Amino acid sequence: MNTKMWRVVFAGFGFALALFFSACSDTNKEQAGQTEQKEATEQTESAQTSVPSAIDEIKNRGELIVGVFGDKPPFGYVDAQGANVGFDVVIAKQIAKDLLGDENKIKFVIVEAANRVEFLRSNKVDIIMANFTKTPQREEVVDFAKPYMKVSLGVVSKEGAITDVAQLEGKTLIVNKGTTADFYFTQNHPNINLLKFEQNTETFAALKDGRGDALAHDNTLLFAWVKDNPEFGVGIKELGDQDVIAPAVKKGNTELLEWLNKEIDTLVEQKFLFNAYEQTLAPIYGADIQPSDVVF
After folding, report:
1. What pLDDT, on a 0 to 100 scale, did the predictor assign at position 7?
2. What span, in angstroms and rounded, lies between the C-alpha atoms of 235 and 229?
3. Which of these CATH numbers, 2.30.42.10, 3.40.50.300, 3.40.190.10, 3.30.420.40, describes 54-148+246-294?
4. What order do you get walking across the sheet with 214-218 strand by strand?
5. How far apart are CA 238 and CA 218, in angstroms?
6. Tens digits of residue pLDDT in 238-266
7. Is the pLDDT of residue 31 over 70?
8. Rounded Cα–Cα distance for residues 213 and 118 (Å)
9. Contact in structure between 261 and 146 (CB atoms under 8 Å)
10. Where do the CATH 3.40.190.10 domains begin and end in the chain?
11. For labelling alongside 28, which of 9, 148, 159, 174 has CA 20 to 30 A away?
């Protein structure tokens, strides 16, 4: 074989060898890419599994944190011994028992009507059980579980003299800031002067002092309040649409929301809400209201 032919052979061999190493390089790059992708996936999965769920956080903490009212008897208030009591509180304790095995594994945080949403947003509470009426506006900022109570707006006045909304035109109506009553009258009756307070104690004190002509609130609360204040009457017993009251969680807390929905279903099936009514509301309402008018 002459020199020219050897050159051709070596050139072909060199080209084949280059193709071989190129293929090996591509294979190694592909394998390296697959390895990197696998490692990234494993890291992501590991990070996801290392973050405790909402339910796990509560269980690891060992207590359920619930926002309730401190001045709204008979639903949520602090008694003479400093204990949280009332209809909402009884239900909250049962929720804690079913979630953590002990109704005492619960921490109550006192909230006002106007700060209930913020307490959820800032993770100060897990659940709001402060007589929270479900409305389209609130559904945009919190997630409501299934309801446990029915409610409508009512208006109380001296001797029940106000029996029609038209009588409030040009007069002063007392409401709590951030409540359903506040929203309803602001949107539907701008000619009625609203005097607003943060706390229920301030609101009802203003009515007694004559700083307003009437007071609008949940009718379930007003029916109870006039029992202890017979000089007043609920002249407008039902106003607007019938609403519902439900537990609320932080927007997007799907796991806790789904658990609460199942829990409310269980409480309804077991007639627990009726038992809670008999324990806390029946002594106040007497025969004037039937349990099925108020609870599910």
Report:
1. 52
2. 14
3. 3.40.190.10
4. 193-197, 172-176, 214-218, 149-158, 232-245
5. 9
6. 998 889 999 999 999 999 999 999 999 99
7. no
8. 31
9. yes
10. 54-148+246-294, 152-243
11. 9
Block residue for tokens 């009726």: 274
Handedness of CA 295, 86, 178, 122 (dihedral sign): negative
The residue assigned the tokens 């490692």 is 39
Q: Is the preceding omega at residue 74 within 30 degrees of 0, hence cis?
A: yes
Tokens in use for 46?
Answer: 């590991």
Per-residue pLDDT of 151-160, as tens digits, reads 999 999 999 9
Tokens 């009212």 map to which residue? 69
First to last CA, the chain: 102
pLDDT digits (tens, 9 = 90+) for 67-96: 999 999 999 999 999 999 999 999 999 999
Given CATH 3.40.190.10, say whether it is the number of domain 152-243. Answer: yes
Question: Amino acid identity, residue 74?
Answer: P
Exposed / middle / buried, residue 209 (Cβ in 10 Å: 0-12, 13-18, 19+): exposed
Give Cα 4 distance to the centre of its chain. Answer: 88
Query: What is d(CA 137, CA 185) in angstroms, rounded to the nearest whole number?
Result: 15
Is the separation of the CB atoms in 154 and 289 below 8 Å?
A: no
Q: What angle do CA 159, 216, 276 make, to 5 degrees?
A: 95
Which structure tokens are listed for 53?
A: 């769920």
Q: Residue 292 is encoded by which pair of tokens?
A: 């099925």
CA 146 to chain centre: 10
Alpha carbons within 13 A on the beta-carbon side of 144: 20
DSSP 245: E
